[in-house]
Specification:
homodimer; alpha+beta; four-stranded mixed sheet; 10 helices; globular
Chain lengths: 325, 325
Amino acid sequence: VSELRLIEAIERSLAAEHPRVIRSIGDDAAVVRAGRYAVTSLDTMVEGVHFRSSQLTPGEIGHRAMAAALSDLAAMGACAGEAYLSLALPRGYAHEDALALVDAAGGLAAACGATIAGGDVVSAGELVVSVTVVGWAEDPSLLVGRDGARPGDLVAVTGALGGAAAGLALLDAETTPVNLGPDARAALHARYARPRPRLAAGAALARAGARAMIDVSDGIATDARHIARRSGAHLALELAALPLAAGLDAVAAWLGTEPARIAAGGGEDYELCVCVPASARESAEAAARTCALSLSWIGRVEAGPSRLTFSDAPGAELHGYEHSS
Amino acid sequence: VSELRLIEAIERSLAAEHPRVIRSIGDDAAVVRAGRYAVTSLDTMVEGVHFRSSQLTPGEIGHRAMAAALSDLAAMGACAGEAYLSLALPRGYAHEDALALVDAAGGLAAACGATIAGGDVVSAGELVVSVTVVGWAEDPSLLVGRDGARPGDLVAVTGALGGAAAGLALLDAETTPVNLGPDARAALHARYARPRPRLAAGAALARAGARAMIDVSDGIATDARHIARRSGAHLALELAALPLAAGLDAVAAWLGTEPARIAAGGGEDYELCVCVPASARESAEAAARTCALSLSWIGRVEAGPSRLTFSDAPGAELHGYEHSS
């Protein structure tokens, strides 16, 4: 009974009409008016692996799972359409917590132009949130993969890096005698707990001529390597050029490391790493500016075997490096 | 490293080209040529809740998760297009088992005209398999929801019921002195472990004039009640009319119950329960026949408050009944 009641409550909370959605939660499947091309990604977050319920509110957990999935659409330059939410709840998980999780996921979806159109709720030993997102595109040539980087291209990243990792470090520390004011601390927490997928920037960078793009989910040292591998090219980045999140200095000093190493290896910033031909440098900057985001040039694409290097940190063992192949 | 290697292995095993799929695993998102309407469902199965790894092979687990998701498309009368597979694997889960799971899921998808176009692999405390399936339709008036049943409609079900529940009962029993030959036992096991989604029958029944349809995943006593609730009608079924799976008699005798009660309450048969106007009786029978499936008439839709009754078992406490609202 409990799962069905919860599904009904979720149904009511998502009952807002959407012009694209013909059938949604409550039928065997959702029915949605499609665009010409579907862009689909899914992202699964597991308690104890991708988050801890002791560190995040249910709303933050829902927001974050939705953000991670939507960020994949941003990295393609696609618009967001519908989201489908699978919730595996431990026995005894409070209904109001489940609703808060779904509300926050739905709120972020709505803020990004998307709507939750379906999902399921099951029992499990641990909390698992899996989000499938679908975006629509009319022209597939405006979608950006990981495989289009070419020698001579410039590499950039939106926003600032390392904030989410610093926010998590502050959560992991029981007591944190870090030299940080409450506002800076809250900002770093928000970078970890309520990331903003860069959908508008992704679409604008695609229109500006982006040839390869990826979202920074595992740390740019790992994610840029995926572009190198799929494009068959050498991405030569500069550690000193990475844009640092505000407050990262203080957290790095407290952790006894350099801010740039956290920026390179820290995941879950959900910024976009993009490769553009040199001729598109200014249009890419303009694209980011229209989205009120900074764009930092952090390296170049060079010919040669697929690899990622930091020219100013040869052989550096970067935090997060172990995630790469 | 391990997850990335596994994703690469999955990528290779799914590398077959598909004309609809423009980008798939290996990019941030899959890109697929869409039809006019997208029909989307997801289904999540959790170790210890929806299956036990001690009772099913990895291939059976993958097949079953894919079947459950595809069955939702069948219940809409939709064709299958793409599937997206989220695998949460416990630490130490063997790569060859994960590949066998994905292979079987992909094999069933292919047999149903679908292709796995994306997914993700994460670590977890327990095995969780979540499948999102997308089908395409050109004419939404040919899609069948749960809300269209009208007084006077006839209610039918495809195939036979209770087989999956009997197969599970045989697995749950350590030693089973049931009067069943090995072939009958294997057939019941297959009903549980390798269900076949009724995609062709669902589409044919939709064309034949089905007004409401649902797949039998929780037991027809529960699933037909969903039709009653969404349609605002009374579904009056006859317990004695339920089609019984071969071998169900012997398992029921061994369990000390009546076969019809297992057929009514047993879930996971993934047959289709359909409501058609009386005028479409013969065309519905013909539709099932073209798919080499039987169609059994099991009751009628009557006016009155939403409810499900078995006219020949008033007030019966049916196995599985507790799942209904």
